[in-house]
């Protein structure tokens, strides 16, 4: 009996064991790698030792730090156990065990090993993306050579009644329970070995015993929680959609609901095209790829948010020394993310190719630099006290963004009649002109010398606690997180608004959009203004964080980098743009920049190149390597790393999808019996 036949009867013992084996091994391997290969066990022990031994100086005894570390560990291990229950309950059982294990190895185990070896988050992410892309390419080639045809996405779709809901919930409980038992036994054996070799403090044995008892109990309840999450995406017997009847004369006075009929969710899904069916099947339980479903994505999002928010506390434990430099670089990454989100509005939503986006970033940067620095005295003759003018940073975020949006309208107005290559050339000219203009305005911008002494933000003190904006990068880290969150919220609201739909209509077909009543002038200008608005926010943050502004910080190639973030991530996709910004920043500004450092190390495998080629340096071929990476990604992933659903359908349209669709009345010649029967011609 197949796993997909679970609604008729409970799973037989063999199928249940296979399903549990598939997901328990798939999740236990990465969690064990984190615990014993990386720093998971060390984090747990340091938290407990910090609480139990307050006299040991090298341990962290800060109560807030210990609480945050404990919270992260509870969320991490608890989420993995709940995920085990979810995956078992949501799995259709049609994917082989080997395929699932390989996916988990390259998606989770390899990045963890890279994190443990490189001790750098962004470099590990960049390398992991490259390795994942190579794995996907090899897997696709193997499938082609074997003439593999994936099963139809909705073949396993069925209505889940109360009987099957109970069966899947019990499977989820079993998965969580067995995960807790196996993990408890493995950790117990490991800790006994550590204790026997004097590597474990005697007081920690109390925790070992308590953990061995609590893990199976937590597994049972968390597995059930994961099963309940999976059943939320199942098609229930009473789930349906109301649709209007065709006959107009039956409507009456009560509107379309008076003659609406109920169509089951199953019938609605079965009527979708192949592309839409594949998208919908990803979230409906049971499905073939539960790791990529919406329920699993919620678990990932919880972990990601916890990791990002608690990162300044976790960094010294996860990556050792150099925390200040890493947090500083992540603050720099943050304004790249905001710039990519703003450019995504112009290019991704509205389809306006803008190659001069750096101009708006320059305007936003100088807006705060000219106000929040000693340069303000040169402009106005008013002495600016730093402790007072630092407070103006907060209103200047909005003021500078609005000013930059105005410039977006002014620069966008001459380009309204242009499209495609012509628009790109004109915006590229703007990107070249604006930095030069600021360079020549000696009286206002200090010319080529730039502006130094830009004030940091100011925040009120709470008791004796004051935020250190001068020497600590942590406040800027949390500030950029807040700004990114606000920009993402604004992007989502704009995308789903009437203006966002108008942008998409212009991107798809400008003539059709104009014929539909969309005001092309206002819509395009608003797209330029919205994109420039986000660039202004990024510019103000950049000036305050850096403390100085120089004309050499900006050039036209920066616009190309911002555009690469949007295209590689996925045009029009907000999650894709976030990932694209991280990947491009990691590859271009971290990995390629440090290749010479790696090559100078005699123990590194890259050391042979300088020895083999005289005067060879990676800095000379950095742009070449970056260009090759961009070309490879665009060839094998033209829609981007995380594309929007619309763009995915455009680039992966099924060849025979139109031919397999049911013929409608418009497919029949007028006047034929089939046409009259379909159209009910009287």
TrEMBL record:
Signal peptide: none annotated. The chain crosses the membrane at residues 20-39, 66-89, 96-115, 121-138, 175-197, 203-223, 297-314, 334-367, 388-410, 422-439, 476-494, 525-544, 560-591, 612-636. It comes from the Bacteria. It is found in: Cell membrane. GO terms for cellular component: plasma membrane. It is a multi-pass membrane protein. One of its GO terms (molecular function) is branched-chain amino acid transmembrane transporter activity. CDD domains: TM_PBP1_LivM_like. This is Branched-chain amino acid ABC transporter permease. Residues 648-682 are annotated as: Disordered. It comes from Dictyobacter alpinus. Keywords: Cell membrane, Membrane, Transmembrane, Transmembrane helix. The keyword Membrane applies.
